């Protein structure tokens, strides 16, 4: 069979492949783009209709012969289609490559239809979605077993088993449940991998009986029932559960188990994978060349899942193949970041220095580090300049590239400092606990710092195990020093830190119970806890402790069982120090023991006082904690015995926020005349900040959580807020109602009335309480309350109310 | 933690107002004019100017409270000052008049001042007395939630009545149709929530249900005049008799349940009526205070104008 010859054969018309083809066409290189599907960008084509596609990372410039910006699936596909046609690229659809043979200069690509394409270079941009993970059980290829779901509305009145517990499985199950009888099969006992919004929806669906869930269940085998089966169903699914094997009769199985690199095919091309992990991707050179010379891999298959990265790589790979050297697309941005640092004129040099100076980042690949640096700022503070201010609510993470910083460990005496040198990092306390900065830190001589935003740092911590471990260990050591043993030298604490464990507790879960044998001390690292005594068979909460405090020291000092029950008020993490190690530490440092005993004594007497106080005080703490105030930094509380219902608070809110009131005075529960209206609590770890695609939600140094103007109106935060305080509203520029026009002539809305922009074309964006951060005098709701009923308080002030 | 407008800053404005009154009284006592004390002496003019300035400032409260984004201090401090300085006006204005009253525009201004201040006192009483009661009556529910519950109870009652018999259905339906929340301004403000016309329909249906039970109960049952006061024991006592009477236990259960639901609905409607009443009382006094204040400002203008015009 005759075969064609090209300089470059591009396999896969995803974002990377089509970008490569467009660039090849633009520069006149002989090329062919081979796509198995009948259309471009099959993965994106299969997104649900109207889905908003992001163009992350935002700062990375696009370098391509085709256009791309964030928008709907339809618009992006159209742009690409038109761009590719205009470029005159040579595309062949329905051309599935089944094997690649040969070597650089004479590759032979065998297609499914038996034809062959010859090429000097091959670019593989086949992504991962072509290789969906199967159930790997007998019968997993039967016709009614599917691994994708294009249109949930195409099915009705069927019994459908959805296998999987990720976002795709949940979204499919919920969509199918509208018209079908749906059973979702979860291998674990909860949905841990899902986005919070999805998690809530699926739990609601299961609780309301809209769909059924089998936990700890995995498929064992599928068989066909045959047309005459009395049940009328088509499939029999055997399910392995904790109690043995059970059977589910159904019409269809939709398994959403993610995708894997198409390993067999890629290995068949001679490409080597670094490990046996099914999720591993082949490693490539900085020029995207695999271990097979002339065979290039770009996009998700090379470990770069973002569309913009793929497009840039498609462009760059063609440049490399054609012998033109290009700088990475982010080079200019990174160069600008290092511009102010003497001696670091070249980005590569800076990257080498960062990797050698800062052990934390030594394990990152240059590409990971570049991405990380793109989000970070390089700062060169003058000696003595304050980098971090005590009690600020900032939560960025700092690494020291050069020079040193000085930590003021005694707020009373700024000259009492501890030096932190090259390669060390700081800021992890606020990052992890979500609380105010614990100390003021000033720059030393010749200081160069890398300041990384919370989101990028969290991403790194979650994705690179070594970084997570180092940050956690350092946090542990510093937390123990800071809160328990400030005068014990660091070296003596290393062993203690090694024996410590990080424990996670769900809301309401007990750290330990009254009467338990005491074997450890807990230092609350994030979240907060309540301390309760059993009185008359009921647990009465007597105190509330935010993070940074420790519990359980009493029992360790006195050898007696636990004297109280301690529970997590919200999802919390503690550092648990084993009693044995703790006692050894006390034996070595008698001063520490004396100090701790004094503290414990104070706590005991306070607790005894609380027992004497009328039970209401404890109930009040319990009530507030039940309202989620355990994770609040600032909450609006209304004294019902003072509130006359004038709604001035809501009017003031609407008046200061473009006609939309961000609080609902009437809604929300009350206890002993304290009312908690629906209003933002400015959580320590704001739920709204998670999954904000444009990273538009921030916290000011004073602690206000606010939404910046780059909100895209996706509604994730509205869904994720457990307190229902975020709304979607049109943020048009509208004139404020005039008091005099309204008062004297009855024209226009009254001041404080809710009003909205007339312009219907304006998009809706998320709005929430920003504590009137841009106005002097504090939140308008509190300022406008005529009777003093409305106040905003922080958790530290709770106890004052409760008593 | 919450600081009330009454005791704001440890009664700061009460102290200011008291000091102002004390000074005015002392100076008035020491003052020996050639004529009987009146608004025309130097002290009279001083007190009059002070009073007029205070009235202007007190009236400005209506503007200030609508400047929601205003940053001139918290509104609670303005209200505290408004109350105590407003009360002090009684002393200032009385001394200004030198106790000379007659049938003229000057005395009209005086009378209006007194009325405004006393309507304010009534407002203060309302603000102090009702919020607690309002909150207790609501018990954590919003009015919308209470109304929704009534609607839900109505629906349940109707379904249940349908299962009992046609007559029950008719009675319940009628009670639903006759349930009116709110009512005229007078009813809202002063009506007794328990005896309001809105409850009439409900009481009627309760009566009907009670008659149904009575009709089936064997003789010798204790006085059943006020079944609504009886507790659950009474109902089950009746129930036993009804079973003895031959009424099927299912039917009995339904009637008893209906009775319960209607009783609950009545309680809820009463709560809503009470809520409306307290809320209206909290707002009503302003319909006296504000128009009287505007009248006072007009009278004050006439008074000042007349004084200078006829000088």
Can you offer a commentary on this structure?
The complex is a heterodimer of chains A (803) and B (311). By secondary structure, chain A is α+β, with helices and mostly antiparallel strands. Chain A has five domains: 3-130 and 261-321, FAD/NAD(P)-binding domain (3-Layer(bba) Sandwich), CATH 3.50.50; 145-255, 3-Layer(bba) Sandwich (FAD/NAD(P)-binding domain); 333-465, Jelly Rolls; 501-612, Sandwich (Jelly Rolls); 626-802, 2-Layer Sandwich (Alpha-Beta Plaits), CATH 3.30.70. Chain A is 29% helix and 23% strand. Chain A is built from 23 helices and 41 strands. In chain A, the strands form eleven sheets. In chain A, strands 1, 2, 5, 6, 7, 8 and 17 form a seven-stranded mixed sheet that branches. The N and C termini of chain A lie far apart (90 Å). The relative contact order of chain A is 0.07. Chain B contains twelve helices and no strands. The longest helix of chain B is centred in the last third of the chain and has 36 residues, at 249-284. Residues 218-243 of chain B have low confidence and may be disordered. Chain B has helices spanning 8-30, 42-59, 61-64, 75-97, 105-138, 143-164, 166-177, 185-190, 197-216, 232-245, 249-284, 286-309. By secondary structure, chain B is mostly helical. Helices cover 76% and strands 0% of the residues of chain B. Classes of the chains: A alpha+beta (803), B mainly alpha (311). The interface between A and B is large, with 42 and 32 residues.
């Amino acid at each position: 069979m005759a075969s064609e010859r090209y300089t470059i054969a591009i396999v896969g018309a995803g974002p990377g492949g089509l970008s490569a083809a467009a660039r090849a066409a633009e520069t006149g290189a002989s090329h062919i783009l081979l796509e198995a599907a009948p259309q471009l960008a099959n993965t994106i084509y299969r997104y649900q209709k109207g889905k908003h596609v992001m163009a992350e990372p935002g700062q990375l410039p696009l370098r391509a012969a085709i256009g791309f910006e964030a928008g709907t699936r339809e618009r992006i596909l159209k742009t690409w289609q038109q761009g590719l046609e205009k470029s005159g690229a040579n595309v062949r659809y329905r051309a599935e490559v089944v094997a690649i043979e040969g070597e650089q200069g004479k590759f032979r690509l065998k297609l499914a239809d038996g034809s062959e394409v010859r090429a000097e270079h091959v670019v593989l941009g086949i992504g991962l979605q072509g290789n969906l993970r199967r159930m790997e059980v007998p019968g997993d290829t039967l016709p009614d077993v599917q691994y994708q779901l294009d249109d949930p509305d195409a099915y009705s009145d069927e019994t459908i088993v959805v296998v999987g517990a990720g976002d795709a499985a949940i979204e499919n199950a919920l969509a199918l449940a509208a018209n079908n009888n749906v059973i979702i099969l979860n291998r674990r006992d909860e949905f841990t991998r899902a986005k919070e919004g999805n998690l809530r929806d699926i739990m609601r669906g299961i609780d309301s009986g809209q769909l059924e869930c089998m936990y700890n269940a995995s498929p064992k085998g599928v068989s066909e029932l045959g047309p005459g089966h009395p049940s009328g169903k088509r499939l029999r699914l055997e399910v392995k559960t904790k109690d043995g094997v059970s059977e589910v009769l159904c019409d269809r199985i939709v398994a959403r188990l993610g995708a894997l690199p198409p390993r067999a095919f890629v290995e068949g091309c001679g490409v080597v994978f670094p490990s046996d992990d099914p999720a591993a991707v082949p490693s490539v050179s900085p020029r995207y060349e695999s271990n097979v010379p002339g065979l290039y891999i770009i996009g998700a298959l090379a470990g770069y899942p973002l569309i913009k990265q793929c497009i840039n790589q498609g462009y760059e790979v063609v440049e490399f193949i054609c012998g033109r050297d290009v700088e990475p697309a982010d080079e200019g941005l990174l160069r600008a970041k290092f511009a102010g640092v003497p001696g670091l004129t070249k980005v590569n040099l800076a990257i080498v220095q960062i990797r050698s100076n800062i052990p934390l980042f030594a394990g990152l690949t240059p590409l990971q580090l570049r991405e990380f640096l793109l989000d970070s700022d390089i700062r060169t503070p003058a000696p003595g300049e304050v980098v971090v201010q005590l009690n600020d609510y900032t939560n960025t993470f700092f690494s020291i590239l050069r020079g040193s910083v000085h930590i003021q460990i005694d707020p009373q005496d700024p000259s009492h400092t501890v030096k932190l040198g090259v390669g060390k990092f700081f800021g992890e306390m606020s990052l992890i606990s979500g609380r105010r900065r614990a100390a003021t830190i000033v720059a030393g001589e010749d200081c160069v710092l890398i300041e990384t935003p919370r989101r990028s740092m969290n991403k790194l911590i979650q994705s690179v195990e070594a970084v997570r471990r180092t940050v956690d260990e350092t946090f542990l050591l510093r937390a123990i020093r800071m809160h328990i043993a400030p005068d014990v030298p660091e070296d003596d604490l290393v062993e203690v830190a090694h024996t410590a464990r990080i424990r996670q507790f769900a809301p309401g879960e007990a750290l330990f119970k009254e009467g338990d044998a005491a074997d450890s001390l807990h230092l609350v690292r994030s979240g907060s806890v309540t301390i309760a005594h059993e009185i008359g068979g009921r647990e009465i909460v007597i105190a509330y402790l935010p993070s940074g405090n420790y519990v359980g020291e009493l029992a360790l000092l006195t050898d007696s069982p636990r004297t109280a029950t301690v529970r997590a008020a919200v999802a919390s993490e503690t550092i648990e120090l084993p009693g044995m190690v703790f006692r050894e530490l006390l034996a070595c440092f008698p001063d520490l023991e004396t100090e701790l005993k004094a503290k414990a004594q104070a706590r005991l007497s306070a607790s005894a006082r609380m027992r004497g106080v009328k039970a209401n005080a404890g109930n009040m703490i319990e009530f507030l904690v039940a309202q989620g105030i355990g994770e609040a930094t600032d909450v609006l509380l209304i004294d019902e015995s003072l509130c006359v219902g004038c709604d001035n608070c809501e009017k003031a809110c609407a008046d200061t926020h473009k006609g939309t009131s961000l609080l609902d005075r009437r809604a929300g529960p009350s206890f002993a005349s304290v009312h908690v209206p629906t209003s933002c609590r400015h959580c320590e770890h704001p739920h709204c900040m998670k999954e904000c695609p444009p990273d538009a939600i921030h916290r000011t140094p004073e602690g206000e959580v606010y939404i910046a103007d780059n909100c895209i109106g996706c509604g994730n935060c509205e869904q994720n807020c457990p307190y229902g305080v975020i709304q979607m509203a049109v943020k048009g520029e509208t004139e404020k109602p005039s008091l005099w026009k309204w008062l004297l002539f009855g024209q226009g809305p009254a001041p404080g009335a809710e009003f909205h922009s007339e312009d219907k074309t304006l998009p809706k964006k998320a709005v929430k309480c920003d504590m009137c951060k841009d106005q002097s005098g504090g939140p308008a709701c509190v300022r406008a309350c005529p009777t003093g009923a409305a106040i905003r308080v922080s958790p530290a002030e709770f106890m004052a109310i409760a008593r | 933690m919450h600081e009330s407008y009454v005791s704001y800053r440890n009664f700061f404005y009460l102290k200011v107002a008291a000091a102002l009154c004390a000074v005015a009284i002392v100076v008035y006592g020491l003052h020996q004019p050639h004529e009987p004390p009146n608004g025309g002496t130097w002290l009279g003019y001083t007190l009059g100017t002070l009073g007029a300035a205070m009235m202007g400032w007190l009236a400005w409260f209506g503007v200030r409270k609508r400047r929601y984004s205003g940053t001139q201090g918290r509104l609670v401090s303005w209200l505290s000052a408004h109350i105590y300085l407003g009360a002090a006006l009684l002393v200032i204005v009385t001394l200004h008049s030198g106790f000379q009253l007659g049938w003229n525009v000057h005395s009209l201004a005086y009378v209006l001042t007194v009325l405004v201040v006393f309507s304010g006192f009534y407002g203060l009483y309302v603000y102090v007395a009702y919020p607690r009661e309002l909150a207790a009556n609501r018990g954590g529910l919003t009015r919308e939630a209470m109304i929704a519950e009534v609607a839900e109870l109505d629906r349940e009652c109707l379904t249940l009545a349908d299962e009992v018999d046609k007559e029950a259905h008719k009675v319940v339906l009628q009670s639903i149709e006759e349930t009116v929340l709110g009512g005229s301004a007078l009813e809202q403000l002063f009506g007794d929530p328990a005896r309001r016309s809105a409850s009439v329909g409900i009481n009627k249906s309760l009566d009907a249900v009670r008659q149904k039970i009575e009709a089936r109960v064997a003789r010798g049952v204790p006085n059943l005049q006020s079944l609504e006061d009886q507790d659950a024991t009474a109902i089950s006592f009746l129930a036993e008799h009804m079973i003895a009477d031959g009424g099927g236990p299912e039917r009995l259960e339904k009637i008893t349940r209906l009775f319960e639901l209607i009783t609950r609905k009545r309680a809820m409607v009463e709560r809503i009526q009470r809520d409306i009443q307290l809320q209206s009382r909290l707002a009503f006094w302003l319909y006296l205070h504000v128009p009287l204040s505007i009248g006072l400002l007009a009278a004050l203008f006439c008074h000042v104008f007349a004084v200078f015009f006829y000088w």
